[in-house]
Amino acid sequence: MTVDETQGGRRRPVRLLLGLLLLAMLAGALAVLGPGLLSGLRAGDGWLRGGPECTVGTSDGEVGLDRDEAKRATTAVALTARGVEAPDTSGIDEAVLQRLADGPPGNAGPSLTCRGSAAGDLREQQLTATGLTPRAERLREAMTAVFGEQSLGGFAPGGIDRGHGAESTHYDGRAVDVFFRPVTEENRREGWLLAHWLVAHAEDLDVQYVIFDDRFWSAHSARGQWQDYDAPEPGNEILRHLDHVHVDVLRGDPD
Fold first, then answer.
1. What is the rounded distance in angstroms from the CA atom of residue 110 to the CA atom of residue 107?
2. Deepest in the core among 22, 63, 75, 211, taking most CB within 10 A?
């Protein structure tokens, strides 16, 4: 055995000890920092964040959009449908704009979805003269600016205390119903124009839930996927939200 071989044999236990010590240090760091690191990556519904903020399902597959693109696309489609000058959509796939304009085909469900992000620093608000909270009133004004005058319900001056299910956000003045009656394919298309616009602008307008056409979207779901809406009995057009889009805003924390 040479001198080098003897020294190499002596180094192995030292290297092994150093390796074990390093692994122990890493394990300790993960135990302390791991939950915080994962919380920045993990969505509230158990999925890791990643990919585009928003997606649109087209006939050629899903197309990813950032939040600004989603807002511009949904606003442009809504304004174009009214014959009003629309924002620039250069750089956005034409297939996206066409799908948003046409609405979901058949029973395919919603075309656009965006990650949910419920703000945690909002304060609870009281009703204004309109029967809506300032946050909900701002939402109503934003919808009117893009979609024009709409058939609205679910609120009234002084507030309401009946006509909706228990714990309804309508009673807090935080919800607006936008009606698309009667239930037809054309009204369904127009309803989805609004529903998609609301989801794209949810962060700016503190939107909490959007419900339409047997589906709902929640700001509390970081993945932001639309889910099936389980309507209460008797499951008619109103309760299934086939004839109107329901949108409400976040409550906020009490003072």
1. 9
2. 211
